[in-house]
Structures are given as C-alpha cells and as structure tokens.
Amino acid sequence: MNNSRIVLHKAAEILENVSPVLEDEVVCAYISPFLEQKQLLLDFSLCYGTPVYVFDEDVLLERAVQFTTVFAQEIPGIRAFFAMKSNNHPAVAKSLVEFGLGLDVSSGLELETALGTGCRHILFSGPGKAEAELDLAVANAEAVTVLIDSFGELERLEGVARLRDVVVRAGVRLTTEEKGMWRKFGIPLAELENFMTRAENFKHIRLCGLQFHTSWNLTPSSQVSFLIRLGKRLAALKGQQAKNIEFLDIGGGYWPSRGEWLHFSATPKGRITQMALPDIRQPERYRYPAEPLEIFAREIGQTLRQHIFPYINCEVFTEPGRWLINDSMHIILTVVDKKAEDLVIVDGGTNIVGWERFETDYFPVINLSNPSLVERNCFIFGSLCTPHDVWGYNYFGDGIEPGDILMVPSQGAYTYSLRQSFIKPLAPVFPLKS
Ligand SMILES: Cc1ncc(COP(=O)(O)O)c(C=O)c1O
C-alpha cells in the first residue's frame, strides 16, 4: 500500500470510532456547587473587578489532604513536591509549603519564588539549566536537591559547586522514551551505571537519587511500565551503587478524576472531520475518563514493592501539579458586548490563560448573573483582535446580556503560569473569602 492508501485506511478506522460523550448530568452535577456559591462569586467580582482569577485556598488544601492521605496509605513515607510550573503564583506555593509539601521547580525564576516562601525542601529539575540557575541552587544547597538532566549538566554542576566549595545533593533524571520528543529529558536508562560511575569522580556532587516523569496520564500505566523497566536495570546495578540511591522521584502527571473534557474538534474523529469540513460544529462534548487517584496510588505502590524495593531501599518522592491546583482557581469575566443572540464579547482575552485552550478543551461557562442548569448555544469570545480568542461555544444560563458576570471554573493548572502579555492586561489573582 502506498502512503495515501494507508492514511485513508487509518482515517476510516478513526472516523468509525466515536469518542465517549460527556453527559449533561455529569456537567450539571459539576456546576451545581458553583451555582450555590453564586452570591459569593458575584460579590467577589464587584469587589475586585474583572477579568480576574479567584483563588480558593480551601479547595487547594482539601486536595493536598486528599493527595497525601491516598498516597501515604499505599506508599508509607512518600513525600510530595508541588510542581510549580503548573501554577507559579506565590500564594499557591506558600499555602502548600505551610501545609507541609515541598516544591518542584524548573527554573531559576521558580527557584527564587520557592525560596521566597521559606521552603526548605526543593527539587530543581528540567533540561538546559543555565550556570546562573545552577549557582542559585548551589548557593542554597541546604534546601535544594538538583535533578541532573545530562552528562554535560553533571560536569557544569560540579564546576559551579567547586567554585563555591559546596557539596550538592543530586539525583539524575531518566528518560522514559529513548526515541521521540521525550528523549529531550534525562539520560537513557542504559546509561545509568555509567552516569553513577562518572559522578563518583566529582567531589562536590552527592548523587543519591533517581527521577522520571511521564505526563498526561489518564491511567497509571505509563508510570507502572517505566517502573518495571527501571526495576530490571536496578537488578543489574552493583552493590554500592544500588546502596547509594536514597530516593526515587516518580514525577507527577496524575489527571484529575473528572477526566479530560473535549470539544468535537479535539477528538480523533473531530480532527479529521475538521480538516475536510472546517466549519462543522458538533454540539456534543466528549469525555475521556481518568482513573481515580486511589488507583494510581495502588498500582504504583504495588509496582514499587514488586519491582523496585527488592533492589533499592529508598524514599519515594512525587511531583503532582495539575491534580492539586486545577480546581482551586477560576476565572470571572464580564460580558461587554452582545453582537447577536448567539455571539457575545467578554472583557478578558485568552491571553490570561496563555493559549487557545477553549478551542479544544471544553469547560462550562456559567452565567452567574442569570444562572440555570440549561446550556444554550452562544459564541463567547474574548476581546483580543483574533478569532481564536474564544472562551466557549455555549453558556449555562437563562439568557446573556452586557454586564452579566460569567465564570469559567477549574482554571488553576497550566493557565496562570502560561499567561501572556498580549494586547490586553493580565488578570490579577485574589483569594476567595467565604
Ligand atoms: C518534571 C515534572 N514533574 C512534575 C510535573 C507536573 O505534572 P502534572 O502537572 O501533570 O502533575 C511536570 C509537568 O510537566 C514535570 O515536567
């Protein structure tokens, strides 16, 4: 078969596969608690203006309790480090540090914020750390563990630490895919022994940990399969090298159990359909279910006991981001203009979330001024000069008019930290006080 035939064959298979529909009852159950908080949220918008982020610290702390309890039951002693890239607002980090979590940072900028919260347990991961960033880590070595990303970085870190005559606690990141885009992260598993041997020559680095991270996990299968591969490697490590490993950091990547909510255009069938018929719009929204956190914890715990702990006696670290922060920030907007029954413009642009998220991801837009459990069709556009500036294609309400206050819930993860200074001002963040 030539390539076009293979593509046509695959496309036909995809078109026949319908994604699971997100049921009305599920969305209504999700928005009902926000409707109960309606007056509080309207008062909030009156007090602070719009567009604005609402930070609900109580929800964040509830999630932190839930996360740590569920994981501790399966993996006693596990320590969680909040991944600041998912939301870099200092109040979020401070709140989680006061709760007792550590922080996972991926740049000098995040490290400065983390140090500013008084955090004493910081992991510094990420590729391509600049010397100035390594130096900041070394200067704060009593609080920071550096997760080294490559052989080159091992040498650079030794150089920086030697200049300050400091010994740095470190781990090494392992790549979970030796082929493809994810090989940008870490070293191949096959190089682990070499890496540890090389590090033994460096007097200013105490290499005592391993890290990996897999992403966008609706189930624990990626984490589990990498742990099994890692176990095989660890079984072959020489005695002292295995003894030197004090911690294993299993990264983050836990999807909130609500699952992934998508517009038709983001489903496999929708992507193909839209290429052929760009204006087609499907009213349904779709849901890819995610396993509850309990399943992640149980399966990862079992795999650790079976495949890792027989070879190394170590602490387990994890770096959750999205799961912790997603539901504790929301966006509030005001309708500025109504250009047709089915088209309104609001005062905030999607620059405040930094990407064209709502072209693919479905989130309900709730009209707090005129609420209802009925969803009506209407283009909800932002006020940037681009047609991609869209918040949604429907809203929950009994009508929509200029001056109405709209809410887009659960915008805590990979929004605030991706915000862009583009045309319109950025939205401030204020705490919700009940
Ligand atoms: C190294 C590392 N750890 C943790 C995370 C957090 O992932 P998530 O927000 O999906 O939990 C990321 C996200 O990209 C990451 O790169």
Radius of gyration: 24 Å
Which overall shape is indicated by the principal axes computed on the Cα atoms?
globular
- Tell me the helix content: 25-40%
Mean pLDDT: 96
Query: Percent of residues in beta strands?
Result: 15-25%
Main beta-sheet strand count, sense and barrel state: 8 strands, mixed
Named at the architecture level, the CATH assignment of the largest domain is: Alpha-Beta Barrel
Description of the molecule:
The chain is an alpha/beta fold. The protein has two domains: 19-54 and 329-431, Lyase, Ornithine Decarboxylase, Chain A, domain 1 (Beta Barrel), CATH 2.40.37; 58-325, Alanine racemase (TIM Barrel, Alpha-Beta Barrel), CATH 3.20.20. It has helices at 3-16, 24-36, 38-48, 57-74, 90-99, 108-116, 131-139, 151-164, 192-200, 221-235, 239-244, 268-276, 293-308, 322-325; strands at 52-55, 79-83, 102-105, 122-124, 144-148, 168-173, 205-211, 247-249, 260-263, 285-288, 315-318, 329-340, 343-346, 366-367, 375-381, 390-396, 405-408, 429-431. The strands form three sheets. Strands 1, 12, 13, 14, 15, 16, 17 and 18 form an eight-stranded mixed beta sheet that branches. Strands 2-3-4-5-6-7-8-11 form an eight-stranded parallel barrel, surrounded by five helices. The chain has a two-stranded antiparallel ribbon with strand order 9-10. The radius of gyration is 24 Å and the shape is globular. Bound molecules: pyridoxal-5'-phosphate. Residues 83, 85-86, 104, 125, 213, 215, 251-254, 319-323 line the site of pyridoxal-5'-phosphate.
